[in-house]
Amino acid sequence: MIKNEEYIVEVIDINANGGGVAKYEGMAVFIPGAVPGDVAKVKIIKVAKSYAVGKLLELVEASEHRAEPPCVYAAKCGGCVAQHIKYEFQLKYKQKQVKDCLERIGKIREVEVLPTIAMENPIHYRNKAQYPIREVDGKIQIGFYAAKSHQVVDIEDCVIGNQKNGAIVDAIRKFLKDNKISIYNEATHKGLARHLVIRNSINFDEAMVCLVINGKKLPHAQDLVERLRAIPGITGILLNHNTAKGNVILAEQTTTLDGRDYIMDKIGELTFKISLLSFFQVNPVQTKVLYDIALGVAALTGSETVLDAYCGIGTISLFLAKEAKRVVGVEAIPQAVANANENAQINGIANVEFVLGNAEDVVLGEKFDVVVVDPPRKGCEEDFLKTIVANAPAKMVYISCDPATLARDVKFMYENGYVVNKVQPVDMFPYTSHVETCVLLSRLTT
Ligand code: SAH
Q1: By the number of CB atoms within 10 A of the CB, which of 24, 272, 437, 446 ranks highest?
Q2: How remote is the CA of residue 100 from the centroid of ligand 1, in Å?
Q3: pLDDT score of 446 more than 70
Q4: Which domains occur in the chain, in start order?
Q5: pLDDT by residue (tens digit) across 262-281?
Q6: How many A from CA of 331 to the centre of ligand 1?
């Protein structure tokens, strides 16, 4: 293929980022925004050794899997990559993505991957929003980054976000403008207002609003409090002080301007306390579905000792504790461990213990019957997997938000005496390319 030339290609697949893939004379052509089944006119914008990248110019034939995006910002905002794809097809392609990774990276042959479990009403599901704040030509932009860029697309109402957030964004925008608060500039590392982070509770009328600033003090902070107090359901107003360069949104230091520095929410029957820095699944409705699957495959009888690694605020641990003899949770963030201990108390669950530390550094002083892991996207450290293999639990329940690292870790477990028994993708992130998967690995007894 030749750069800047136009070609007509048939789109046959989707890649991990939700973009379309075509084949042209044996070469893979990645086309953002294209859907399998499209016949597309593309302009080649990059040619590498084994692949090319094409810009979608025109649809010669539109795929039957295309849908009208439910969001008005879909074409500009980089937050969702699958707004133009029918929901049923998103589910199919997520299932295929998991299968492809397990076969290609995990070298697991003919693995059965169950159909992705759909979300019944796949909009307004997110309970956390992190908006970069920038200034362009004197206008304050609060929204999300455009695809592959740090250009902020101003957003009034996000289709996958909480419906209450529009009013909060609006109030913040007006506060910053009326008080002439300086806006953060990434290039110069100057300016104060950097990000807006909102955490919503789905089950209680609660929300935490946090303005991330590049400094110690926010001028007119009382005015911000008064404006936000006028919006119902805001139970905490915080400042997070992030003066470091780079993409990390939240720093360690937080000041409470008003109300509480946490929110409460529920998953199923259990209630959780969630602080600003603690991880909490962004889609609590589907989290319940996911945890029920994990609980189902763990098939506890009441006599087991269970390890829940990467336990966050103890959500899975507390779910498992009802059916286990004892659960030990391991988590790296101190605030999350503190929340986990409080959550055990709030729910009256005594047979759990939470340990602060990196999973790969813990020394397991006892034998576990079941190990549950739910690591971040980079997956588990090999040292930790080695520790599990040495501990020889009968079952490992692997919950993953990244099929590629899941497959890498499953391969390691497979090579060390574990077989894959069940692979269940769950759609936690409709309209994005992300997929959550629960895998049951069972130890071969020889
Ligand atoms: N199981 C929880 C949290 C999963 S997210 C839930 O479902 O809500 C992954 C968690 O792993 C985060 O809380 C993160 O702080 C934690 N984490 C990241 N790296 C870690 C490590 N090396 N050791 C232990 N925990 C880690």
Answers
A1: 437
A2: 25
A3: no
A4: 6-66 (2.40.50.140), 90-120+283-443 (3.40.50.150), 128-263 (2.40.50.1070)
A5: 999 999 999 999 999 999 99
A6: 6
Q: Which residues of 54-74 are buried (b: 16+ CB within 10 A; e: fewer)?
A: bbbeebeeebebbbebbbebb
Say which amino acid occupies 150.
H
* Residue tagged 């789109």 (tokens): 11
Q: What is the pLDDT of residue 1?
A: 92
Cα 410 from Cα 417, distance rounded (Å):
11
Question: What six digits make up the tokens of 106?
Answer: 């995990």
Ligand 1 binding pocket mutation candidate from 313, 331, 383 (most atoms within 8 A of CB): 331
- Please state, as a whole number, how many other Cβ atoms lie within 10 Å of the Cβ of residue 210: 24
**Which of the four pLDDT bands, split at 50, 70 and 90, describes residue 442?**
very high
Alpha-carbon separation of residue 116 from 103, 145, 309, 419, 421 (angstroms): 17, 28, 24, 21, 16
Give me the pLDDT at residue 27, please.
Answer: 94
> What is the value of pTM for the model shown?
0.92
